[in-house]
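User: quick one, fold this
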Amino acid sequence: MTVPEMGRERRTTAAVLTQPAGGQLRPRRDPDWMIRQLPVQMVSHDFFRRFVSIFQELGAGLMEDVDNVDAVLDVDVAPVEFVRWLGSWIGADDIDSSLPEELQRRLVVGAARTLTWRGTAAGLEDYLELLSGGEAQVEDGGGVHRAGEAPPDPGWVRLRVASTGLLSRAEFVALVRDEVPAHARAELYVGDTLIWSTSQEMSSE
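Assistant:
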């Protein structure tokens, strides 16, 4: 190889973008990406090539991590342990690792989407649909009323789902309990069956 050819080769880009089937551009790194950045005289010397290749091998792993950092932050593909850690950023820090992996990911996504509505009827309904995978209904005694026209007992909420989805009833109740406002008396129904209420818990204490 002549010196001019080596000079041109050394100036080539270390990573070339390729487009996989998914459509997202990913870098395909040249295996000699660090060696090719050396001056021509050093490239032609075997000792320098072998010496730099040590750091090239160590650096390759770091570069691959950087290339894939967007995937690490993607709840759909990140390791499930990392997904739970991401959930802790937004208050979803009590996700049980024994839950189905698909559900753990859905919980984090749902927590991010409903964060500003947490504790409201709309937020509870969205959360129930997320857990059950089906439609949910939420009724409560809250509202905006004229002075003197407020109902005497607004502090209640009634939750209804068709099923508990991938969860057992006990697991479903444990997750819902943490989302119900502390001051509200709550009832949770699966179909027409009452499976949990705050009054039952109070009477059992």
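User: anything notable?
Assistant: The first helix runs from residue 3 to 10.
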